Amino acid sequence: MGAEAMIDVLIGIDPGQTGAIACLEDGKVVAVSDMPTSGKSHGKGQEVDAYELSSILMGMKSGKEATVIIEQVGAMPGNGGTSMFGFGDSFGVIRGVCGALQLPVRRVRPQHWKRKAGIINKDKDAARGLAIQRHPEVSDMLKRKKDCGRADAILIAEFGGI
């Protein structure tokens, strides 16, 4: 029985309650999911649902070797303490779930992956446009301006994995 080459799976995560998770296999987008949150809607004022996140990550990993790339962000001027605490809580839940699932994690600063993507100092919609250009097969999942978290997750996996 010979050794089989493992398919390289990169899972990009745009953390936060309005973030997303994207899975690239051999450079192609195979799955995209909004960040699962508790409550009825996706978005602000919710908490990351650790159980659902673990299910999504295990499905994306699907028995293959995978590396998770999480955007590492910090406090931004103008953000209040409550919102930053919520963001930090989300980041911690994501890291905890990855640790429990024994998924290796790399952190990438937004400036790093955005520079590699050529969208540094551009608006949020630039990431969506680039993700559609590079991965037209998922353009239907990136139609709305509010889909920028999905686009970020795709590009975090692609350029943060380099």
Strand order, sheet with most strands: 3-2-1-4-5
- CATH class, anyone? Alpha Beta
CATH topology: Nucleotidyltransferase, domain 5
Which structural class should the secondary elements be placed in? alpha/beta
- The general outline is globular
Q: What distance separates the N and C termini?
A: 32 Å
Largest sheet: 5 strands, mixed
- Give me the CATH superfamily: Ribonuclease H-like superfamily/Ribonuclease H
Helix count from the secondary structure assignment:
5
Would you kindly provide a written description of the structure presented here, covering whatever features stand out?
The chain has 162 residues and is of the alpha/beta class. The protein has one domain (9-160): Ribonuclease H-like superfamily/Ribonuclease H (Nucleotidyltransferase, domain 5), CATH 3.30.420.10. The protein has 5 helices and 5 strands. Strand 2 and strand 3 (28-34) form a beta hairpin. Mean pLDDT is 86; it is low at 1-5.
